Amino acid sequence: MADVVATMTGFVRTLRAAGVVACHERTQSFLRALTHLGAADRHAVYWAGRLTLCAGPDDIPRYDRCFTAYFGGERPAATRRTPVPVVTVTRHTLSPGGESGRESAEREPVAATASTTEVLRQRDVARLTAAELAEVHRLLAILRAGREQRRSRRFAPAHRGRLDTRRTIRETLRRGGETARLRRKARRVRPRHVVLLVDVSGSMAPYADTLLRFAHALVRCDARATEVFSVGTRLTRVTAQLRHRDPARAMREVSAAIPDWSGGTRLGEELKEFLDRRSGVRGAVVVIASDGWERGDPSLLGRQMARLSRLAHRVIWVNPHKGQEGYQPLTGGMRAALPHVGAFVAGHSLAAFEELAERLSHA
Fold first, then answer.
1. Residue 115, class by beta-carbon neighbours within 10 Å (0-12 exposed, 13-18 middle, 19+ buried)?
2. Which of 78, 107, 223, 340 is an S-S bond match for 309, by CB 3.0 to 4.6 Å?
3. Are both 183 and 215 inside the same structural domain?
């Protein structure tokens, strides 16, 4: 039962990343429905989720797209009943003489409810085959990432809020001095800007391409509130290249725009250049994706990180190696940066990217 809950909650997280409002209460209703219908019936899983997790007609296309991507296959028809694919694990036991063969092997098929997509979600992208990596990139292409909302300095008409003296007086004058209804105003709400700095040095080569595809998903969701830079031996702005809707074309243009792929890392110098030249960092959520292998002076990186933490709303450091068991941030760059980081998260798998996208929507 624990495997079923893990698989289905993973599906709910995918729906939330795609923009479906699948709150805690709806998730609990979904899981209760599956206890009665059974999770082995793909048809039952589809309709249980659609009826409990979708809040309105606008959620249904997103739900269908996520269901197909997560569980594989086509969307179940209203009258078709297709069992969900299962992973069969075969165990072999040695014969008393110590030899293993068809005659002495004991095969015990064990049905696991986790789909292939769920397995891929947890795996390190550096260890995937080309076909598996392509599937992860396809799922990143449909990832929906929200933004934390912030109050702007500008005001807009509202039913509640502070008194709008000018609008009230103007309306009174238009009415010839007759007392008019008091007008109100409130601050506008805008998405908080997100700035991504992606390390493309040699030590980050297994992860840089996937991290940039995640950045493409963020830009696609809100291009006006997202800025992306590559860092290595130089700082390169790649936001314009990532604005193409087609992920393949966007990555081709990014590859052509970055001159220092798989080079060294000068995080301190590049961060100083970024802070000296860019004014959009104030009040933004800054995400630095790097393993912290600093070729320059770590103390310079520490000073620039302290400067960044004072300007930004929040600083998130994404390290692909944090997802590995037993990892310790022992490099000079990481030790210099961590005291000034608001969140230190993993960035090695599809599940880690989904969690990062959810974190950005509630930063």
1. buried
2. 340
3. no
